[in-house]
C-alpha cells in the first residue's frame, strides 16, 4: 500500500487518509470517462495538503470519492481510500480503526457518521449547500445535535439551547460579527463572504479530523478571499484539523499548504513539499503551471505564458503519458507507456520519463 518514498520523506506518523490507485469512471452514452485514473496520495494528521490542477483534472471528483458522494453514472472502479477514524473511548491514535471508504456503502451508517462527522466539506458555492427555507443557525444546530456526542461530556444528551450556544461560539470563531442575530438569518440574506464563513462554521460543527476545502474562495470577491484564506489558516493552527485544499491557483497553494499534489487528467504528476515544488519543480506540467503565475516582482504588462494546447477531450484520452501532447520535453517513448509516480531527489515524487524509466502497470 505504501509508496516507495525517499528517505527524506519517510513519515513518522500514520497517515490520516491514504488514497491508493483510485479510479473513478463515468459510463456515458458517448463512452467511458476515466475522471480519476490511478491517483495515490497521503494526508498526514494536521497537515494542509494542496491539490492543484486545471479544471477537469479530476481533483473535485477525487474529493467526492473520499466522501462517497460520486453521483451516477460515476463509480469508484478500483483503488483504496484508507481513513483513520477517531479513536473511541479516549483511546490513543494507535487504537484508531482504519476503514477503506471505497468499500463502504455510500448510504450506510458508518459512511454517514464519517461524512459530516469526521470528514467535512467546504464547497465552492455555499449558497447551494444551505437550505433556503431554514435559517443557517438552525441547520448548524441540527448538525451539532446529529453529531452531538462530539460536544458532550460524560455521554449526556445535548440540549437544543446548548447547541445554539455552540453555534454562536462557532460564528464568533469564524469572524462573524453580531453572531446572536446572524444565526437567525437565511443564507440568501447573507453576503457571499458571510455565507462562506457560515459554511466553515457548519463544517467545524462536527469537529472534523479532515476538512476538504474545494476552491472555497471561487465565488467571493478578492478582498474577502484573502480574509477567508487567513481564517482557514488560523483555524487549522488552532484546531489542528488536517485540510485538503483544492485549487487551480498555485498562488493560493503557496499561502495555504505545506505539501502539494499536482494533478492532470486524473493522475498525480508530481508531489512534494511546497517550497521544493516551487523552487525545483521536476515535472514539465508543474513547471508550466508555475510559469503561468503572475510574479509580484516581474515586469508588468508582460503577457503570461500559457500552457500550449488544450486539455484533451475526456473521451480522447491520449495513450502513454497523459501530458505528452502538450509537453515541451516530449520523447518518443512518452506516447507508448504511462510513467509511474516515483521518487525524484530527496523530497519529491514525479510521473515523468525525464527522471526514471518506471512504467505504470495498466
Ligand atoms: Fe513530458 Fe514525457 Fe515527462 Fe510526460 S513523460 S511529462 S511527455 S517528458
What is the gist of this entry?
This protein is an alpha/beta fold and 362 residues long. The protein has helices at 59-66, 109-114, 126-129, 136-146, 160-173, 179-182, 192-204, 222-239, 250-256, 274-279, 284-291, and strands at residues 17-28, 31-43, 48-52, 74-84, 98-100, 119-122, 210-214, 242-247, 259-264, 267-273, 342-344, 348-350. It has a domain at 119-207: Rossmann fold (3-Layer(aba) Sandwich), CATH 3.40.50.
Q: How many individual helices?
A: 11
CATH architectural grouping of the domain at 119-207: 3-Layer(aba) Sandwich
Number of strands: 12
Poorly predicted runs of 5 or more residues: 6-10
Characterize the largest beta sheet: strand count, sense, and whether it forms a barrel. Answer: 8 strands, mixed
Q: Shape, please?
A: globular
Residues in helix, %: 25-40%
Strand content: 15-25%
| The CATH topology of the domain at 119-207 | Rossmann fold
CATH superfamily of the domain at 119-207: P-loop containing nucleotide triphosphate hydrolases
Structural class: alpha/beta
CATH class categorisation of the domain at 119-207:
Alpha Beta
Mean pLDDT rating: 86
Attached small molecules: iron/sulfur cluster
If you had to describe this structure to a student in words, what would you say it looks like?
- The chain has an eight-stranded mixed β-sheet, with helices on both faces. A four-stranded antiparallel β-sheet has the order 2-1-4-5.
- The protein is built from eleven helices and twelve strands.
- The protein is globular, with a radius of gyration of 21 Å.
- It is 27% helix and 22% strand.
- By secondary structure, it is of the alpha/beta class.
- The protein has a domain at 119-207: Rossmann fold.
- It binds iron/sulfur cluster.
- Residues 283-284, 321, 323-324, 327, 329-331, 334, 339, 352-354 line the site of iron/sulfur cluster.
Amino acid at each position: 500500500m505504501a509508496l516507495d518514498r525517499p528517505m527524506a520523506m519517510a513519515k513518522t506518523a500514520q497517515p490520516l487518509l491514504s488514497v491508493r490507485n483510485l479510479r473513478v469512471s463515468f459510463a456515458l452514452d458517448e463512452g467511458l470517462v476515466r475522471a480519476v485514473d490511478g491517483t495515490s496520495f497521503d494526508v498526514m494528521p494536521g497537515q494542509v495538503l494542496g491539490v492543484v490542477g486545471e479544471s477537469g483534472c479530476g481533483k473535485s471528483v477525487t474529493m467526492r470519492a473520499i466522501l462517497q458522494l460520486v453521483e451516477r453514472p460515476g463509480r469508484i472502479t478500483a483503488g483504496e481510500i484508507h481513513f483513520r477514524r477517531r479513536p473511541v473511548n479516549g483511546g490513543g491514535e494507535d487504537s484508531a480503526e482504519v476503514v477503506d471508504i471505497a468499500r463502504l456503502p455510500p448510504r450506510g451508517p458508518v459512511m454517514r457518521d464519517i461524512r459530516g462527522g469526521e470528514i467535512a466539506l467546504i464547497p465552492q458555492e455555499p449558497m447551494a449547500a444551505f437550505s433556503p427555507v431554514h435559517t443557517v443557525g438552525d441547520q448548524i444546530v441540527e448538525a451539532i445535535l446529529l453529531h452531538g456526542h462530539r460536544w458532550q461530556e460524560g455521554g449526556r444528551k445535548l440540549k437544543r439551547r446548548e447547541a445554539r450556544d455552540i453555534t454562536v461560539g462557532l460564528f464568533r470563531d469564524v469572524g462573524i460579527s453580531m453572531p446572536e442575530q446572524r444565526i437567525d438569518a437565511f443564507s440568501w440574506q447573507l453576503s457571499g463572504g458571510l455565507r462562506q464563513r457560515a459554511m466553515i462554521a457548519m463544517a467545524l460543527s462536527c469537529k472534523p479530523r479532515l476538512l476538504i476545502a474545494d476552491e472555497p474562495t471561487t465565488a467571493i470577491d478578492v478582498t474577502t478571499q484573502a480574509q477567508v484564506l487567513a481564517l482557514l489558516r488560523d483555524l487549522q493552527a488552532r484546531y489542528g484539523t488536517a485540510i485538503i485544499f483544492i485549487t487551480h491557483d498555485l498562488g493560493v497553494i503557496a499561502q495555504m499548504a505545506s505539501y502539494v499534489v499536482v494533478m492532470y487528467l486524473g493522475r498525480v504528476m508530481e508531489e512534494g513539499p511546497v517550497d521544493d515544488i516551487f523552487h525545483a519543480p521536476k515535472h514539465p506540467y508543474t513547471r508550466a503551471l508555475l510559469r503561468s503565475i503572475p510574479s509580484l516582482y516581474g515586469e508588468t504588462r508582460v503577457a503570461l505564458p500559457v500552457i500550449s494546447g488544450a486539455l484533451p477531450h475526456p473521451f480522447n484520452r491520449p495513450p502513454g503519458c497523459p501530458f505528452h501532447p502538450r509537453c515541451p520535453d516530449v520523447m518518443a517513448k512518452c506516447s507508448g507507456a504511462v510513467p509511474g509516480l516515483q521518487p525524484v531527489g530527496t523530497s519529491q515524487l514525479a510521473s515523468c520519463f525525464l527522471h526514471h524509466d518506471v512504467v505504470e502497470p495498466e
